[in-house]
Amino acid sequence: MCVKESKAGKRGAQRQHSLELCTENELRSIRDVLNISSSGADNRDISDNGEAQSLKSSDIEQMREECNESSKIIEKLVENSKTFHTRTEYSQDKYLLKKEKKYFEFVQIRQPTIRLMADIFHRQDPDKIMGIRVDTLSQIISYSGISGFGNYMLYESGTNGLLPAAMLNSMGAGTEATLVHMHPGNVPQKQALLALKLPLEQQQRCISVNLYSVLREFYQGDKPEATNSADDEEKVEAVTEAEVTAEEQSEGFEPSSKKVKLDESPKFEIFLSIDTVG
User: Fold this and answer.
1) Which cellular compartments is it found in (predicted)?
2) Suppose 148 and one of 175, 182, 208, 218 were both cysteines; which one would form an S-S bond, judging by CB atoms 3.0 to 4.6 Å apart?
3) Could you tell me the residue range of the domain that residue 82 belongs to?
């Protein structure tokens, strides 16, 4: 793949990319492609003063616009370098590797796996997967005893779907195991789970449940019954008071508004004697 800039001579401008299948020649070492065999004994006579390359920056930019293969650009750079062939072989390899990173851009398409996704997520942003590394994920799967039989429940607060994907992958396809994935929030995180592209029947055995909905159903489901029982108790008390009032009126009983005076509690006198020792 050769990278071209939309505007020549302006670094950082928007680039246009074209993807092509790599040939065996492009996958070979750049040293073998350019047939470089000579090298110097040491680098004592090399000075990094910026004058070793005879090509100007404008010439290099023009080559990047015209050349379709990055190996040709590196070949021109090597030919116009005054010090390349006097460098040691190790120094030449470093120079070629630096130019490869600058002018070569390869895209490798791979089948997603749990290990690959764990490495990518951890390298991009460890906080989004709670800092779980591959070894930690392996221990979680091992200690949990996930197999193709039984029902399992998982609660996680945000790992981009890495944990449920790892557990569902360990259960396997066409098994009897079921995973209940409990999560906070309205929508579960399933990035890693969807990236695996598991069979539909295996995906359906992962049941996502909102934890807050479960708690709300659990606590609010008992409230109406409690309210009804409280209302019934109030009604019973009201009926009892009404019956007592009716009986008192029928018997001619007049309630007294005066409070019954309680007997005064006995007073205790404490005598304190101090003996003076003469």
Assistant:
1) Nucleus
2) 175
3) 4-103
